[in-house]
Amino acid sequence: MSKTYMVPPSPPANEGKTLAAWVLSVLVVVGAIVAAFGLATASQLVMIIGAAVIVVGLIAGFGLAKAGKGQPREHTA
To answer: Which controlled-vocabulary keywords does the entry list (predicted)?
Structure first.
């Protein structure tokens, strides 16, 4: 019995460099830097602000991906 294999489709040409990915990455890095600065200066308010920036970055990145600004996904039914 022979099996037939299909060639997988080529990956998207954008290599994952999308608006959603950039927004998520930049906001998470900035939030981590702010939170680390707050930790180094023992400022709880600055640490909370950094954590809030990280959460906003996650929400924005996933929201943009759902809005179609992220990596295209193949829908298999």
So the answer is: Membrane, Transmembrane, Transmembrane helix
